[in-house]
Amino acid sequence: MTTKTAPSSDTHLTGRLAELEQRLLAKDRRALARVLSWVESGDQRGREMLRALYPRSGRARTIGLTGSPGAGKSTVTNELAKAFRQRGQSVGIVAIDPSSPYTMGAILGDRVRMTELYSDSDVFIRSLASRGALGGLSAATQDVVHVLDAYGKDVILIETVGAGQDEVDIAGAAQTTVLVNTPNMGDEVQTLKAGIMEIADVLAVNKSDLPGADRMVSALKALLSLNPDRGWDPPVVRVVATQGEGTEKLVDACDAHFDELQTSGRLELAELARARQQITALARANVLNQLHTADGEERLTMLATEVASRASDPHSAAAAWLAGS
Amino acid sequence: MSDTSTLTDQIRVLVAKPGLDGHDRGAKIVARALRDAGMEVIYTGIRQTPDMIAEAALQEDVHVVALSVLSGAHLELFPRVVDACRKRGITPENTLFLGGGIIPDEDADALRETGFSAVFGPGAHTGDIAEYVRAHVPELDRS
């Protein structure tokens, strides 16, 4: 770890970083964009900026949107952003698309559905590539949200990678999770499965002008009626995002969930859980980074040879790698 | 995490089509080629105004703004995008501007004078575009 240049107790920035922080706090969007790049890439300047800005975060409302590829997450995000802007709230959008596992390249195309927000200087959209993370977000997503929060965004919408069944990290990262479904996504067994169906605080059935919408809505309601009482019954909302239909009801549902979080005291608990999750994830990443030194790579190659030739087993090899022997 | 993290160097490219022509095949091919070259490509789609493109370039903090026009309006549209970017502090000193389309050599020369560092025509090889980006991004002032 390279904390030598700035002790963790010292959040005072100097020189170029201090200048950039001042510009960011004065609502300079270009300064915000540059700080987000540093934070995303995990370089030292990003960590110092985050340390300085973090105490100012914790005020924004966060809403996550997840669902299959093509379900309409970007279009629904666009609709929610417009609705919050109509209330006079400033909006940050973090939209994540997958990185190639082969080249680490990515096409980030979520902005295509959000062009009508470009002329509004109170909406800031940032596209992120997943950069190898598997839970539907990127490793830096939470830090990007913290910076947008410190900048002063009232609402931050987080759109995940097109998610299948198991990409559930968004539930820990956002206060309210909206699952975007569409009609004809499979039979009722799909709604019974564990994973993504369990994390939804609000269920949107998008493209509900298509045949099969009624069946989808009733299947989801049937599923939800079997849920154990968690103090909150996730509502099912029909929307046609391309037409703006159902947006108001969707926003109302998100508001109702947020109110419930506040009155029940679960908002603080969720924030604690989120912090715990992020610390764990960062610690895990640090351990891996410490292992992936040139020396560590060499030992990994040796251990892999042993495991492949059955001279060792994977568990023993992993223990040996961690132990540095 | 080491301070020589390679992702610090991850190149981000905005691919955009200003103006009204809807022929986005070329833009998509280039986007795909740059993706395959390991870059993160923000694709904004067709019919973008210069201000929309500049705003996206600002928010995404890209290293490269790559524009495609096939209607012949490149001399009109491309410089307007550079102007909209300059108003936001995005200049040829800190960002590569690339143009693509059916662009005669004399037009390409004119575009270079307005801030475009390279212009790629119909015969361009996508590998050459990626190569060009990789060679010239390190020269940008990203402080």
Write up what this structure looks like.
In chain A, 46% of the residues lie in helices and 13% in strands. Chain A is an alpha/beta fold and 325 residues long. Chain A has three domains: 54 residues, no CATH class; 208 residues, Rossmann fold (3-Layer(aba) Sandwich); 48 residues, no CATH class. Chain A has a seven-stranded parallel sheet with strand order 4-2-5-1-6-7-8, sandwiched between helices. The N terminus of chain A is likely disordered. Chain B has a single domain, classed as Rossmann fold, CATH 3.40.50.280. Helices cover 39% and strands 17% of the residues of chain B. The radius of gyration of chain B is 14 Å and the shape is globular. At the A-B interface, α2, β3, β4 and α10 of A face α1, β2 and α2 of B. β3 of chain A pairs parallel with β2 of chain B.
Core attributes:
heterodimer; A: 325 residues; alpha/beta; Rossmann fold; 3 domains; seven-stranded parallel beta sheet; globular; disordered N terminus; B: 143 residues; five-stranded parallel beta sheet
Beta-strand portion of chain A reads 5-15%
N-to-C span of chain A: 21 Å
> How many DSSP-defined strands of chain A?
8
Number of domains of chain A: 3
Write a short abstract of this structure:
The complex is a heterodimer of chains A (325) and B (143). Chain A has twelve helices and eight strands. With 325 residues, chain A is an alpha/beta fold.
Topology:
The complex is a heterodimer of chains A (325) and B (143).
Chain A: H1 15-25, H2 29-41, H3 44-53, E1 61-67, H4 73-86, E2 91-97, E3 106-108, E4 123-129, H5 141-151, E5 155-159, H6 170-173, E6 176-181, H7 188-192, E7 202-205, H8 213-225, E8 236-238, H9 247-264, H10 266-291, H11 294-308, H12 314-323
Parallel strand pairs in A: 1-5, 1-6, 2-4, 2-5, 6-7, 7-8
Helix pairs in contact in A: 1-2, 2-3, 2-5, 4-9, 11-12
Chain B: E1 12-16, H1 25-36, E2 40-43, H2 50-60, E3 64-69, H3 74-86, E4 96-101, H4 105-113, E5 118-120, H5 126-136
Parallel strand pairs in B: 1-2, 1-3, 3-4, 4-5
Helix pairs in contact in B: 1-5, 2-3
